[in-house]
Write a structure and sequence with these properties.
Blueprint (H helix, E strand, L loop, with lengths): L1 H21 L6 H5 L2 E7 L10 H13 L4 E6 L10 H7 L4 E4 L23 H10 L2 H9 L4 E8 L6 E3 L13 E3 L2 H9 L3 E3 L6 H6 L5 E2 L4 H7 L7 E4 L8 E7 H5 L3 H36 L3 E4 L2 H21 L1 H23 L1 H9 L1
Parallel strand pairs: 1-2, 1-3, 6-7, 6-8, 9-11
Antiparallel strand pairs: 3-10, 4-10, 5-8, 5-9
Bound molecules: calcium ion (CA).
Calcium ion binds next to loops.
């Protein structure tokens, strides 16, 4: 912890040094010292472990790194705007910042889904690489520009679980008529396979599952799912999370207000979000296994792998949907071509590096 803090302080010193040079002539001294009190709305319950802590940590880092010049107050879903009202709140400028997942906004900007992740797509490391070093970030900013939003990557859940079921899935037949909470393109895949996808915010899932409003739900993975108590409402826990291979979270910033910030505060926000993007992934990697053992050993959850033929069919459907969506919308196509090319290239190398190594190690 101390080591981490020291690193942040070093980063702060470095950033201060850079921004002093860069801001010469850009900002008046008064502007550089003005204080900012911003409000950040999220799609998660307040202080929710893992993903919900990302905006809290960004707010703390920004306040420390800016020596109190910038304060960000974080609101949980429903405190100021509903979970799915975050994008509009930031777009309109009623709130300066938001924290959420891009795939929630598929109705407004269909290409936004690629910046969370798509079925059978990039893992956490891979989506970070595409975003930060493979052209993804520039495309993302282009997609959100018409909404007056400036996005920054801000957390990753790692590979998720397929989720909680009260019905066994032994064949594609069992998917027909299945009412499941599953957002994004994963939901479209389920629909084409005969299921009924539903989009509900996290806070409503336990009751929906327990009362039978839905037959199944995906959420994140063992660490988060345990906190919602899904094991008390469903019997089977299915993997793998083919629909969310490494979901990236987003920090949304109203673009006008971002551009009006002094340069050094922009660098502080960007650096804090980058640190938290990795920190959240590390937290999931460290906690998921322990939570899974508790679910299975203490709570008697039945861990199941989806049948191979069901996974294979979902993969065919997912690719069809991605191709069809791209053919319908030039913006989606532009993002899809970049994502697809990166995935082909990165997976060719991972086949002989990480994938081959993990296989050798775990055998
Ligand atoms: Ca999920």
């Amino acid at each position: 912890m101390n080591k981490q803090k020291n690193l942040y302080l070093l980063a702060l010193i470095f950033i201060s040094a850079c921004s002093q040079n860069e801001s010469v002539g850009n900002n008046s001294e008064a502007e550089d010292q003005k204080t900012f009190n911003w409000r950040l709305v999220t799609a998660w319950p307040k202080n929710y472990p893992g993903l919900g802590m990302a905006p809290e940590r960004i707010a703390n880092l920004v306040e420390e790194m800016s020596n109190g010049q910038m304060k960000i107050t974080v609101y949980g879903a429903g405190e100021q705007v509903p979970a799915f009202g975050v994008f509009d709140a930031v777009s309109s400028g009623s709130h300066q910042m938001g924290h959420s997942g891009g795939y929630f906004w598929k109705g407004k900007a269909p290409a936004a889904q690629f910046f969370t992740g798509v079925p059978f797509g990039l893992t956490a490391d891979e989506i970070n690489a595409w975003t930060n070093r493979g052209g993804g970030l520039e495309l993302w900013r282009e997609v959100y520009e018409p909404f007056n939003i400036y996005p920054i990557p801000a957390g990753n859940t790692g590979t998720q679980m397929f989720g909680w079921f009260n019905k066994e899935i032994n064949s594609l037949e069992d998917v027909r008529g299945l009412k499941m909470r599953i957002p994004g393109i994963g939901g479209e895949v389920l629909k084409r396979a005969g299921g009924i996808p539903v989009t509900l915010p996290g806070g409503e899932l336990f009751t929906a599952l327990q009362t039978g409003v839905i037959d199944a739900t995906e959420w994140v993975g063992p660490y988060n799912d345990l906190t919602f108590g899904f094991h008390q409402a469903a019997k089977y826990y299915y993997y793998p999370g083919w629909h969310e291979p490494g979901s990236m979270l987003e920090l949304l910033i109203n673009k006008d207000q971002w551009e009006a910030l002094p340069k050094h505060l922009q660098v502080i926000i960007d650096t804090a979000a980058k640190a938290v993007n990795q920190d959240i992934l590390d937290e999931y990697t460290a906690r998921n296994n322990r939570a899974l053992r508790e679910l299975v050993d203490v709570h008697g959850v039945e861990l199941r792998k989806l049948p191979d033929d069901v996974i294979a069919e979902f993969k065919v459907i997912a690719n069809d949907i991605l191709e069809e969506n791209a053919a319908k919308d030039p913006t989606v196509n532009k993002v899809y071509q970049s994502y697809k090319k990166f995935k082909e290239e990165v997976s060719a190398y991972h086949k002989v590096s990480e994938d081959a190594f993990v296989e050798a190690r775990n055998d």
